[in-house]
């Protein structure tokens, strides 16, 4: 569980960027963190990982103040995948890259091999174990970042713009896998994204940041039912929600939309 | 009215020579002028931090010289000279665009453009390098690598940053080389820019530089 208590933050040489944010993300939730560019999404997620520290307020992970947790303890609980996958690469081979965190934890080579193999095959990278990570395609680097975080088997995964630079099929596969992780292993997923369709389709709860303020915290359906003017926060309703709003229908998936339209047509006839 | 990058470069080189040629009170006066000029050009936190860091470094240098047996006068003069030279470069960097410095080096000093580019790139890479090292530390911390502990442990753990940092620098330089080639980098790169013509202020400053640099010859007449 991640909890923020009245968190405020400003960079060293700048104006405040996060204002008094309090929220709780419970175990097993699949949450989207939305907001326009510069709204504070990445900054908030960096606070979750103690990469930055709040000016005031506290961030708690499983009830522990993260300022007091050792990096190894925090990495055990929360995995973080960077927005730019190039920034995350630390080693010369894909295998070593995924094994990095496990070696920091001083695990045996046998366990390392097993966990790395599992993480790589989950991301479809098992054939690239000996490849040079910087030579991978952008999409593969993204999946490598996720594999490296997964290898540590954290209870929470924070994924910053994970679907950027991936084709539609890769996006779907990645999201399906995350959904499976969330449902089967009860891993908490915090998805930072601009992609309203992804948020609408896969998440149950949405947090919206606007200029460093938490302006919406609620169910995904409530955000995309057409009743909220989300454009004031720099967001755009997905096409399905726009259509739904015109027809007076709330639907999160195309299937649900078609079903409700058929019902409506049936009622009229 | 501004002096050109060429004159500024000559002035910086001249200041570097003056710290050895001129008497200490004059060198101290130059330092005061430099500080006023630097704070006039740029008075943000970065500049204050740079002056602060330079002061600490100078202090350390003076203490080291004293520890190794130099007299107080020699140590203080050495520190003052270093401070004046470095502040002159800080003034140059604060007042002039790196691109203008490169152009002056190619156009007026006839330095091959590859060397001019190398110099400007090195200057430009410093903040990039610092940002990259912080990002690498962040990436390591996210995977459970700790650089906490006493000074020795922290120094040792910083060694782990070197490898990924070098890998990233190599990848970056590769991209930079490719991008330069695509943009047609070559002999004409700096020549296509508007020429830096010397104005009356430049000639005045250059005359002053010559006058001050001739101090050993005219000091006996004062």
Features of the shown structure:
heterodimer; A: alpha/beta; six-stranded mixed β-sheet; four-stranded antiparallel β-sheet; B: 222 residues; mainly alpha; 9 helices; flat
Description:
The complex is a heterodimer of chains A (269) and B (222). Chain A is an alpha/beta fold and 269 residues long. Chain A has helices at residues 41-48, 71-77, 94-104, 109-122, 138-151, 168-185, 196-202, 220-223, 239-247, 254-268, and strands at 2-10, 16-25, 30-35, 56-61, 64-65, 78-81, 156-160, 188-192, 205-210, 213-219. In chain A, strands 6-7-8-3-9-10 form a six-stranded mixed β-sheet, sandwiched between helices. In chain A, α3 (94-104) crosses α4 (109-122) and α4 crosses α5.
What would you say about this model in short?
Chain A is of the alpha/beta class. Helices cover 40% and strands 22% of the residues of chain A.
Oligomer: heterodimer
Structural class of chain A: alpha/beta
Major beta-sheet overview of chain B: none
Distance between the termini of chain B: 33 Å
Percent strand of chain A equals 15-25%
- Count the strands of chain A? 10
Distance between the termini of chain A: 50 Å
Pattern of helices and strands of chain A: EEEHEEHEHHHEHEHEEHHH
| Principal-axis shape of chain A | globular
Largest interface: A-B, 29 and 19 residues
Number of helices of chain B: 9
Helix/strand class of chain B: mainly alpha
